[in-house]
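Here is one chain, start to finish.
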Amino acid sequence: MKIIFIFASIYWNYLSFLGQPCQQVEFESKPKEFTILRQYINSCREKRYFFDDKGVVKLVIYKDSNGLTCWRLSAIIDDRYLTSPPEQYAFVGNDAVLVYSGDINGNLLTLSSDLRTRSACIEEILGTRVYKYTAGSQFVYSRDSKGVMQKTPVTYLSGGNSHNNVIIKFNSDNTTTMFKPT
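Its structure:
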């Protein structure tokens, strides 16, 4: 047990020396971006995409085929983001934003840093802002009108609600365009 503690201490000091595996990004100094994030968070609260004060924003920043910066925003309420945790995060007031980089289509880029250290860092930062995901039964059993037992598959959304996804395009004339992906 003592050896495990020594190795854990050495590993922790090594990580501290390298720097934190996830870095904070500031949006307060960028009024336009900060306002967009604040409005999106307020919309998530109004439309109840966050539940019981649980929920964070997933922000994917990417350049489209025309070279314009785009944001893909979605609200997530559970910790399924841990399968691919980001290297960056931000706060808008007390609300957390997970900041990812994306490819030309807005899909997440594969990160080379260690998954476990990123997960631990993001979990520490988020604290209790998201629910713990527990995989439930893949099927629900029920009886039909004739009393025959039926097995129905259960489908889950990816940690939130697909109706809250928004794409913001920052146009070259300093305007923004917002639309919902199909």
